């Protein structure tokens, strides 16, 4: 690690506006799910260079190959780590989490980023790193989490019966899907009918699904909208080993994240929410304002609101408890919703 830090610190040259590469691979052509960027400041300067680990094979004494270089093979110099993050964002990656290691008086920044696909929301400045490095008197680093909860993005990938893959976030002792469910079938293979017509959706009294505005682009990013009859169906929509969250499990999640107000900020994605009420995504759940489908079959609220199902009926037994996030306040709402509406699903591990 010390050799990498030294290499980064002394190999600084002028910034180039031409194509940037790592191991001779153009940044935009890196075709993996996750990358880690490592940055260190130049001595007596605020400038930084970054190395990118995307799982490539690198010999120990050729670690310079991981440095971002211009078309002339020289290291690219950035004004700051934010400048580097903006550079990575422009090349199709999004921030996941970060930590800092302090060795002596030098900070080395580590950022985990995810290859972004089907992006439809506006870009924004990456959130504040979730961990802060505090150097001790012995030149060791104590990693203290900034939030008062335990949350981490795992590198595990969950797959549903259709073969769709999902990221996972562990919050406390529970693992949650970090994306909305996109599956088209129940666990036993039975198809869940897709309904596009407003009238047919409104009249449905059995399990049904749709995608927002009947647009495949929305479906890839936001997942499927499911009516409440999917929730009440005993065939189970979640993958094996996972289940629909109960109202109590939602409540535990929210309390773990600091209550309804703090949880809203930590659950929300860092972009997409209007009225400048984006979140920090420090929970890793990356909740987008996905909208919903009302009882009349109309698609409403994209960019402003999102609705997520629990598997718990209200005391009367005619409605189902849901959780909501909106663009007019930082608060997680709880409502008893009619099964005719369309909401999203986040499965939780058994």
Helix segment count? 7
Shape: elongated
Question: How much helical structure, as a percent, in the residues?
Answer: 10-25%
Radius of gyration: 22 Å
What is the number of beta strands? 21
State the assembly state of the protein chains. Answer: single chain
Tell me about the largest β-sheet.
4 strands, antiparallel
Strand content: 25-35%
Q: Helix-strand pattern, N to C? A: HEEEEHEEEEEEEHEHEHEHHEEEEEEE
Strand order of the largest sheet: 4-3-6-5
Lay out the secondary structure.
Layout: H1 2-10, E1 21-22, E2 25-26, E3 34-41, E4 48-53, H2 81-90, E5 93-103, E6 106-115, E7 131-135, E8 141-145, E9 151-159, E10 165-171, E11 174-177, H3 198-203, E12 209-210, H4 216-222, E13 225-227, H5 228-232, E14 242-243, H6 247-256, H7 260-267, E15 290-293, E16 299-302, E17 305-313, E18 320-326, E19 333-337, E20 342-343, E21 348-349
Antiparallel strand pairs: 1-2, 3-4, 3-6, 5-6, 7-8, 9-10, 10-11, 12-13, 13-20, 14-21, 15-16, 17-18, 18-19
Helix pairs in contact: 6-7
